[in-house]
Amino acid sequence: MPYLIAPRTPLTPEQVERGFDYLLALQMGGGASVAGRAEADPALAFVLLRLAEDTVWPVTAVSGEEDPCADSFALDEVGCALLSALRDWARASPTTAALGIARTIIRFTVNVIPDPDHPDTADTLEAMRDEHLVLAHAMHSTPGAHQ
Questions:
Q1: pTM
Q2: For residue 118, what is the DSSP state?
Q3: Cα separation of 147 and 87, whole Å?
Q4: How far apart are CA 39 and CA 50, in angstroms?
Q5: What is the tens place of the pLDDT at every residue in 12-25?
Q6: What distance in Å separates the CA atoms of residue 91 and residue 95, rounded to the nearest whole number?
Q7: How far is the CA of 40 from the CAs of 34, 35, 95, in angstroms?
Q8: What mean pLDDT is predicted for residues 116-143?
């Protein structure tokens, strides 16, 4: 349901780096390695929420390229429900939401979008970071880009 996704200002390269630094630290070192980061940076939950939207939505949304079926609509609704719950959590408690949103992104990456070229989840997250950085640099280096 693309109409439920409001237009958003693109993440800056710095936000992309901050979000993926948190994800990679959690993936490689566990919860102790990220302890206190969300409390020190409450905006982190919203950066992670944006990364979750960019990760979940393209995989679960009904594609205009294929013939829709009941399963594709069900997957679309699951993606919408997941993102809606993460948005509510981020709004209600940004400092506690960051860790949960990050774990959701990691779990989604492991179970739904494994990359055969990057069998290690950290490698997949690094590849995703690189893709997001390219887009962020492109969006923020063009004339009239969002600041």
A1: 0.81
A2: B
A3: 23
A4: 18
A5: 999 999 999 999 98
A6: 10
A7: 11, 10, 8
A8: 85
